[in-house]
Amino acid sequence: MKVLYDTILKAKYTGRPNRFVVTLDLNGESVLAHLPNPGRMWELLFTGVTMYIVPHDKPDAKTKYRVVGIERDGVVIMLDTNYSNDVAQHLIENKLIPGWEEWRVVRREYTVKLHGTSSRFDLLLTNDKGEEFLLEVKSCTLFSKTGAMFPDAITERGRKHLLHLKELQNEGYHTGVLFLVQWDKAQWFLPDYHTDLEFAKTFKEVATSLDWKAVAVAWDDTFTMPTVTHECSYPSSILDTEAHDSGVYVMVMHLDHDLDLEIGSKGMMHFKAGYYMYVGSAKANLTKRIERHKRKRKKMHWHLDYFRGHCEMIAGLPIRTSLDDAECTLADAVRGVAEWDVPKFGSSDCDCKSHLFGMTENPIHNKKFMDVVEDYRMNKLDALVK
Asked: What is d(CA 185, CA 162) in angstroms, rounded to the nearest whole number?
């Protein structure tokens, strides 16, 4: 079996200055490492987790090391997207993809022209009949206990790519996508309609036309070519009930100073410096509601509108769900991981103690908080998977 790297080192994650660089503790020394996967990976990047790095193979590189993997719950996960095509080719040529045993790779980075537009595909496959198969390869690093979703950030380019694959299919080409799910515990796969609803809608539209698969692969700390543990199921019925622009959300904000502020009819309220999590809901137009909360200038309506003008917006986390009681149960779950709350803020029309909660650490980097988000976005779907 092919080993991808000669020298692999273990280090502890300490921070991420930008999308492509992480800071690490390597045997007590603080080092920088290039991160080839630009995804958000909020569910993986927590202080102290083990990352796998290799010495950078480019002498003029800005960092001495390059990240190749990370651990989640003791399981090794591949992060180096530079090798996605190599992995896909290995799995296809060794007939490890269920249902694709007839195909073999004949070319990499294959370009097709259609209606004056050129498109490049990761792999060109063929079979004994001389048929051709245009294949795109995607690495999936967004997981829950038993599920996987893609993408972990909005990708308009990815959505258009799906439409182009469908167009080529209509022109007589055989096209598809291979999702390499880097988590062998994943049993099911869905487009991430929480993060990118438009991508999910497009995926649902084209999925029956394309030859696509999501396979769970297993790695070890030698980063030898992985095995396929199984093909993930596609519970498409969940998209029918859940993938709509409605549900609940958490707005994550930062207040850098203590603040006494008048909140509408509630009067003066005190907010201490720290990070805040506001839980709300929208029966329709969830995306617009979140975008409204992100703006500072607006007509004062909700309690959050008064507070928003004094803090920095970190993120808006939509959770699209058909559950009627999700807002209050989510608020209770967030309260369970928070350090304090602002009494009766945002909860005038329910029995909750509050819908605004605080902590000293950025919640996006707090595993307990992100576990709550994962629970509501993905783990609760396990009961719906058939």
From this structure: 26
